[in-house]
Amino acid sequence: MSLLSRCLSRLQPRVLPVVGVKAPSRALARSLVVLSSNNRTGRTTRTSHLCSCGCGIHGMHTRGDRELVEFLQEEIVAEKKNLRGSVPSHLDDFSVKVKDAEVILTKKFHDEEIAISLNVNHTVDTEMPEVNVDRPTETDLASRPSFEVDLQIGPKIMSFTCSYTPSGDVVEGQDQGQDAFGINELTIYEGEWNDETYCVSGDILDGMMYDLLMNMLEERGITNEFAEKLSTLCSDYEHTLYVSLLQQVQDFVKRK
Hints:
One of its GO terms (cellular component) is mitochondrial matrix. This is GC1qR. It is a single chain. The chain has helices spanning 3-11, 29-36, 63-80, 207-219, 224-253; strands at 90-91, 94-99, 102-109, 112-119, 124-131, 139-143, 147-153, 156-164, 181-190, 200-201. The chain is α+β, with helices and mostly antiparallel strands.
């Protein structure tokens, strides 16, 4: 199978049939123009600045390695154009810290220590891409990770596991249709959480209690608006990690 065929087969699940809207930038569609002109049958040869004599110079020992590096060189440049700056130090009144794929937001609220933790791995929603307001003909892939909200007083922690609500998802008996996120799970423990700690699913909570718990989070600044801002922060940060990964793959193949 040619490189073009492999790219096209991997591209299939990510193509979005939206009239007048381009596929997400990470779908690599813009790079297929370059690849199509490089098809092995009747192709137009393009000048390569990489070693092509098979001697292993530049650390590339196979033709596939060289083609991958050439592809990544153009893809990295294209993706960097869509980067939207560094991670902010604060989101509303929460301080923000990141480490690899982990994101942690913290703040004090009266006698409570509030911590929101999440991981951006495997969180990009390819089904419902967001239209880029700056470039209406393009779409952005949104990161909508589940997140943990820990309210700590001394050694005791009330912990919420939350996730973003799919568009149009309404649960009977719960007014979640207007909520950007919902409560999946609730637990209270002391010290460190372990597998023996009892957790209750948000689905079986009394409807009134569920609403009061959502109000409790809202009073601490974890609102629908905050959740949307958090998704934007995660989307931008995940994109930064993606571009960094592309660079690392290129450096690995080039033996840097």
